[in-house]
């Protein structure tokens, strides 16, 4: 029997991408709300409590309100907002994060889908901490560049509008106060003792991103070299379908460059280990709308349903 799915916030970028990914799926029946009632609490409450699975594609405050409207204990909630990612009682929706996480997702009714920057950051820092190579006290820094689609409808409209400001033609660094909303999630889920220095950049391309973490090997446990760092990350993601640890030197295929938009439209994540014996840079590359948002949400739903994890996704 097909599962009933409701998307609260289906007009946003993430909600629309989730909606599109259900095309042709006979195991899903979408509950559709009257467009004029999509912000009506009573109608949303009815839809959510009728569903087997509800996706929340909303701002944080609205996501918390939606959860409060759910009275049916059988409803599984997948929240794509920041609201519940570090909250007790919620399961973090990153199946590859650590041993047993996939099983935790499968048995959960409250799943918080990771943020895009957090996905890239945790995919690198967490395996190194779990392997004992990266001390939790390491002064971690990260820089990242993302397409503008992750910034929401208003920003997308500016980038694609006829009166786009000149500065929007160049990469723009933001969150300069070191208060980015993903920092709490990045710190807790990676297992760090303190928040990292984080410099995100938005650029004039639609989707795709990378997150890079530079390390001084002398500050890591045992002063590991490039190969040892690569081996630890590769071992962590061995046999994982959604994460590809690229061979050492793979960046040479692109003349030594790692393009941020190369994974646009793809739902997996690539990891590159580069550098030398003293300074290593580890980079994760993926689609901010794929493994960084809607693709990750669908992957978690597939785990809950017990079907192939890549069903409806592009790998």
List keywords for this structure.
315 residues, alpha/beta, 7-stranded mixed sheet, 9 helices, 29% helix
Provide structural commentary.
The chain has 315 residues and is α/β, with parallel strands linked by helices. The chain has 9 helices and 13 strands. The protein has helices at residues 13-20, 41-50, 60-68, 101-106, 116-130, 153-160, 183-190, 226-236, 290-305; strands at residues 3-8, 28-31, 53-56, 76-79, 91-92, 110-112, 141-147, 172-173, 197-203, 209-216, 243-245, 269-275, 279-286. Strands 8-9-7-10-13-12-11 form a 7-stranded mixed sheet. The chain has a 6-stranded parallel sheet with strand order 2-1-3-4-6-5, sandwiched between helices. α1 (13-20) packs across α9 (290-305) and α5 (116-130) packs parallel to α7 (183-190). The longest helix is centred in the last third of the chain and has 16 residues, at 290-305. The radius of gyration is 20 Å and the shape is globular. The two termini are 26 Å apart.
In short:
With 315 residues, this protein is an alpha/beta fold. It is built from nine helices and 13 strands.
Counting DSSP E segments of at least 2 residues, the number of strands comes to: 13
Strand order of the largest sheet: 8-9-7-10-13-12-11
Number of helices: 9
> What would the principal axes of the Cα set say about the shape?
globular
The SSE string, one letter per element, is: EHEHEHEEHEHEHEHEEHEEEH
Estimate what percentage of residues fall within beta strands: 15-25%
Query: Structural class from helices and strands?
Result: alpha/beta
> CA-to-CA gap between the ends?
26 Å
Give me the Rg, rounded.
20 Å
How helical, in percent, are the residues? 25-40%
The description of the largest β-sheet is:
7 strands, mixed
Mean pLDDT: 95
- Poorly predicted regions: none
């Amino acid at each position: 029997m097909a599962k009933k799915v409701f998307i609260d916030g289906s007009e946003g970028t993430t909600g629309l991408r989730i909606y599109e990914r259900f095309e042709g799926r006979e195991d899903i029946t979408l509950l559709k709300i009257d467009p004029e009632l999509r912000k009506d609490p009573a109608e949303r409450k009815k839809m959510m409590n009728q569903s087997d699975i509800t996706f929340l594609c909303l701002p944080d405050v609205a996501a918390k309100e939606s959860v409060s409207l759910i009275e049916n204990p059988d409803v599984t909630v997948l929240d794509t907002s920041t609201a519940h990612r570090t909250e007790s009682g919620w399961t973090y929706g990153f199946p590859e994060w650590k041993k047993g996480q996939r099983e935790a997702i499968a048995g959960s009714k409250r799943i918080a889908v990771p943020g895009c920057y957090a996905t890239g950051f945790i995919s690198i820092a967490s395996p190194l901490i779990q392997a004992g190579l990266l001390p939790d006290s390491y002064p971690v820094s990260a820089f990242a560049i993302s397409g503008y689609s992750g910034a929401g409808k208003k920003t997308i409209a500016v980038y694609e509008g006829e009166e786009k400001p000149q500065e929007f033609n160049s990469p723009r660094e933001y969150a300069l106060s070191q208060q980015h909303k993903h920092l709490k999630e990045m710190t807790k889920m990676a297992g760090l003792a303190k928040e990292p220095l984080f410099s995100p950049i938005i650029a004039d391309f639609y989707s795709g991103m990378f997150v890079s973490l530079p390390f001084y090997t002398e500050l890591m446990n045992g002063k590991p070299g490039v190969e040892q760092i690569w081996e630890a990350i590769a071992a962590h993601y061995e046999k994982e379908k959604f994460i590809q640890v690229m061979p050492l030197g793979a960046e040479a295929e692109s003349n030594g460059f790692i393009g941020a938009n190369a994974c646009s439209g793809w739902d997996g994540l690539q990891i590159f280990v580069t550098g030398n014996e003293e300074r290593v840079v580890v980079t994760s590359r993926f689609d901010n709308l794929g493994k960084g948002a809607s693709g990750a949400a669908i992957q978690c739903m597939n785990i809950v349903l017990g079907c192939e994890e890549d069903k409806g996704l592009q790998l």
